[in-house]
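> call design_seq(struct)
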């Protein structure tokens, strides 16, 4: 879970840096926006993109090596979005009104319940036991 948490946090930070980089590029394309290139924050945002994307790939691969895809993908989806919303609220001063907060909480609970329901029927069965096929169960067609 540590690998997945790192991947989620870096992913949310990469998306937030991408949002800032998009705003910078929009300003750059304005008639008087050439000065954006000389601002150090522009290059910090570019560096965050260059470093953040490979870090996400490395840590998601480490998480996938330890856990099944059916468990990793929903957890990554849920927590990347949670970290992204929290980071967006803090960084861009986007506030959640009461209706937005209730919608956010209901969506979060729905996704968490869905993740639990998708992964609960599997039990503690190993991968080998799930795909166990015995030779005596297979019928062979004599014409083949």
């Amino acid at each position: 879970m540590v690998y997945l948490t790192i991947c989620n946090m870096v992913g949310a930070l990469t998306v937030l840096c991408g949002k800032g980089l998009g705003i910078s590029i929009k300003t750059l394309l304005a008639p008087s926006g050439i000065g954006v290139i000389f601002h150090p924050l522009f290059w910090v945002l570019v560096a965050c993109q260059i470093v953040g994307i490979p870090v996400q790939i490395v840590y998601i691969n480490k998480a996938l090596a330890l856990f099944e895809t059916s468990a990793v993908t929903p957890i990554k989806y849920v927590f990347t979005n949670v970290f992204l919303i929290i980071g967006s609220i803090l960084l861009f001063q986007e506030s959640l009104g009461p209706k937005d907060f209730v919608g956010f909480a209901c969506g979060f609970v729905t996704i968490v319940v869905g993740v639990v329901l998708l992964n609960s029927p599997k039990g503690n069965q190993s991968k080998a036991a799930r795909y166990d096929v015995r030779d005596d169960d297979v019928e062979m067609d004599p014409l083949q």
